[in-house]
Amino acid sequence: MKHLAVIIPFYQKKSGLLRNSINSILSQSDIDNIRITIIIIDDESPINAEKELINIEKIQNIEIEIINQENSGPAKARNVGLDLADSLNVDYIAFLDSDDIWHDDHISRAMFYLNKESDFYFCDHQRFDNENSYFVENPYINDYVNKYKVEQSLVIEIKAKIFFVNLIETYFCQTSTIVFSRKILNGLRFDETLTVAGEDHLMWLHLISQCNIVTMDLKSGVDYGEGVNIFTSSNDWGTSLSIKNNFDQFSLFLKMSKEFILDNAVKKFVKYKMDEKFSFYSYLTVKFALRFDFIGFKLLFNSDLPKVSTFFKIIYNFFYFIIMRPLK
């Protein structure tokens, strides 16, 4: 019997969300031949995970483990889950955020392709506030589907070396849609310095660099919820959290340039994105410093970046930014 670990980092302020997510796992179809261990990492959530799951239905071949940790963010929580999954010697690993819902055939579809040639599976998803699915909304992914889709097929099976470059250019794989073979994990873990943005993107790149075939399922298999979402909140440039968002995204592309062997065209794209995110970070850092909020400079001084030269680069970028894109 194949063994699947489902890793759920948990931090929510609204009751009932985790219970709904767990019920979507318990309601999966065609899983009689799969052993499932649900690993919930309670990241000091205001809503207690154990209380959320009181009287939850018990199903044969499905067990639930709850781990409590000091509040450390989703990357640390997922890494704790990966450590347990490794110790259990599972065959496959899936992720599910605690406000998301799997469609009842999500696991059976993933297992079908992972039991063939694929090592990494992901699917389309639907956000609670969007009329269309993620793949339909994203023009890059739309073009990609038109390029690679085989007529009448609902999946795209593509060589990992090709998809690796595509994934650098746009973010295809939302966390709750992903299922992969543990054999490609090889000790990899989420980067815990990227606390607001980019830790998942970097992890998927590392995983895909370890495999041969990637399966992209065009059928939506996940409904994304409206619980606590740090990344979405950090997109608001009116909050200081947006500084960390742009710093993390700058750090993401910097790490891409250092951790992977890239051809010249991809290097050029990564350098462009790195400069763009650093420009946004610089503008926001000085903007908030003028309000006596120095979070941007604190990020610099706590990083491995050269302090003096980066400081002057921030100041230069700020003035360049407001000249090219005047303050409103």
TrEMBL record:
Signal peptide: none annotated. GO terms for molecular function: transferase activity. CDD domains: Glyco_tranf_GTA_type. Keywords: Transferase. The keyword Signal does not apply. This is Glycosyltransferase family 2 protein. Residues 6-155 form the Glycosyltransferase 2-like domain. The keyword Ribonucleoprotein does not apply.
